[in-house]
Design goal:
about 270 residues; alpha/beta; single chain; sulfurtransferase activity; LarE
Length: about 270
C-alpha cells in the first residue's frame, strides 16, 4: 500500500475509533432512523459499540416518505435484529410543511425529532442521535438547526465522517446498502410556496416508483404544475428516453408533459 493509502487508512481508523468512543460514552442510544445510508451506518455502529439491548431505532412514517421506502427501512431493521419503533406522523398538519415554506425542513424536523425524543424517553432512552455528517455543514440544512436546538446529537458529524467515509466504511463492514443513492423528503420535489396535499405527494412518489422499478436507483421527479421534470444521472439519460411505456405511465398520473432535465440529478435545486 502507498504512503497516501496508509495515511487514508489511519485517518479512517481514527474516525472510527472516535465514533465508537462517542457512542460508548452514551451507554444507551436511540437513533432517528430513515433507511438511508447515514442513519443505517450510525445504527450499525451503535449496535457494534453498545449491543442490541442498549440501542433503539425510531422510524417515522408519513407522506414525506414513499411507503416503499418505509417498508424497505423496516426490512433493514429486521435484518439487523434491531429493536425499533415506527411512529405515524401527519406532516400536512404542520402549516409550514403544507405551504412548503423555505424553512419547511426546520419546522418538520422539529416536529419529527420531538416525537422521536418522546418515544425514546418512553422506552428509557435519554440520548437521541441523527445521521448528520460532515458534508451537511456545507449545504442548506435548516432541519439540522432544529435537531440541534432540541438536543439531538450527531456522532458522525462529531467524528468527522463525510458521506464518502460512511460509504467506504459501510462497504468494509459488509453493509448491503453502502452505495444506496441519497433520498430526500418528497416535498423537495416542489418549488417553495407550492401548497402541498396528500394527492400531490403520493403522485410524485408513484412517479418515482415507476422509475425505480425500471432500474433507475437515482432519480427525482420535480413538479412544475402539470409538468413532471425528471432528473437522472447523465449516463442514464439515453436509456430513459427509450422507455416510452414508463413515460406514458407517469403522464397517466395526471401530468400534461414529462420532460428530461439535461443537467442531470442534483440535490437542492430549489434552494
Amino acid at each position: 500500500m502507498s504512503i497516501n493509502g496508509n495515511r487514508k487508512e489511519k485517518h479512517m481508523t481514527e474516525k472510527t475509533d472516535k465514533l465508537q468512543s462517542i457512542l460508548q460514552e452514551k451507554g444507551r442510544l436511540a437513533v432517528a432512523y430513515s433507511g438511508g445510508i447515514d442513519s443505517h451506518f450510525l445504527l450499525a455502529a451503535a449496535l457494534r459499540a453498545l449491543g442490541k439491548e442498549q440501542v433503539l431505532a425510531v422510524l417515522c412514517r408519513g407522506l414525506m416518505m414513499p411507503e416503499a421506502e418505509v417498508c424497505e427501512a423496516e426490512r433493514l431493521l429486521k435484518d439487523m435484529g434491531a429493536d425499533y419503533r415506527i411512529l405515524e406522523v401527519d406532516v400536512l398538519a404542520i402549516p409550514e410543511f403544507a405551504e412548503n415554506d423555505k424553512r419547511r425542513c426546520y419546522f418538520c424536523k422539529k416536529h419529527l425529532m420531538s416525537r422521536i425524543k418522546e418515544c425514546a424517553a418512553e422506552n428509557g432512552f435519554t440520548a437521541v442521535a441523527d445521521g448528520k455528517n460532515a458534508d451537511d455543514a456545507g449545504v442548506y440544512r435548516p432541519g439540522a438547526q432544529a435537531a440541534e436546538e432540541i438536543g439531538i446529537i450527531s456522532p458522525l458529524f462529531e467524528s468527522g465522517f463525510t458521506k464518502q467515509d460512511i460509504r467506504t466504511c459501510a462497504r468494509e463492514w459488509g453493509i448491503s446498502i453502502w452505495n444506496k443513492p441519497s433520498q430526500a423528503c418528497l416535498a423537495s420535489r416542489f418549488s417553495y410556496h407550492t401548497h402541498l396535499t396528500a394527492e400531490k405527494l403520493q403522485r410524485v412518489g408513484e412517479a418515482e416508483k415507476i422509475l425505480h422499478d425500471a432500474g433507475f436507483a437515482a432519480c427525482r421527479v420535480r413538479v412544475h404544475d402539470m409538468i413532471a421534470r425528471i432528473e437522472v444521472p447523465r449516463e442514464d439519460m439515453g436509456r430513459l428516453v427509450t422507455l416510452t411505456g414508463q413515460i406514458q405511465k407517469i403522464r397517466e398520473l395526471g401530468f400534461s408533459f414529462v420532460t428530461l432535465d439535461l443537467e442531470g440529478i442534483r440535490s437542492g435545486v430549489f434552494d
